[in-house]
Known about the structure:
With 334 residues, this protein is mostly helical.
Amino acid sequence: MESDLAFIWAAVIAFAVFAYVVLDGFDLGVGILFPAYPEKDDRDLMMNTIAPIWDGNETWLVLGGGGLFAVFPLAYAVVMPALYAPIIAMLLFLVFRGVAFEFVHRTKRGRKIWEWAFSGGSIGAALAQGIALGALVQGIAYDNRAYAGGDWDWLSLFSILTGVALVVGYALLGATWLVMKTEGEVRARAKDIALKALFGTLGLIGIASLWTPFLNPVYFDHWFKFPHILFSVMVPLLVAGCAYLAFDGLRKDKDSQPFLACLGLFALCFAGIGISFYPYMVPPSLTIADAAAPDDSLEFLLVGAAVLVPIILAYTAYAYWVFRGKVRPEDGYH
């Protein structure tokens, strides 16, 4: 069992990161879409769709980051110096967004400023997350148990591509969320945006997918050698299936199908990253086993996670159940 603890923890952290991406992704997407809705009533309705749940979604970010620090301290020590700039930028943008979320309903004179802060914070946080992801995928220089790269290694054409892709992907999630949760003009406009964002997301996924195997020979082997090539063949088919379901749901004016299909797209992209990385925690040289804390620490922390994660899942599911259904203009949270 002890030899498997590091891989169990890697799965837990991967799940926490994925939960954050899909749950906080759609409410960041709502903020990204703010400029497309200049009317005050429309923006109020958009914010009310995420108001009861947005801060709970960020619990998964804390769990993922805290878990990485506690369970994979060497990976944390290597990744943080490499990605200080995008990570600090992400946190600052999230702060701006969180403050703006509360203040926008408590002022009249400064409302426009806080609306732009909410939208700008959402766009900036998504862009910073995508850039950090791209920098991690392209590889982090590692030597003698420390980061060995430069101050600007995180900034490249590939990381910019992944940053833009995540902004567009989050906009897609936000638009399909509004399709599911609203009615009338807000929903109609979200449907049009979702169709455009769907094609944009698919195009950017395609470019990133074709680029990634050539970033590192390890990725190329993982994708194009047997038996991994079987997954490489399946993924485009599954992506096409999810894209069809999303398009079909939007075309037939369904509520939940487009959103669920887009979650499937994100799940497939996340699975693809996992296939590329495994068994590395920090590609191209730091493995999961090498980066893990001692087995005694992993076992002790796993007991806490076994209690904490089900609790988080339970109250998250309960919150979504309580606030299920359409949100209408007369409904309010603030």
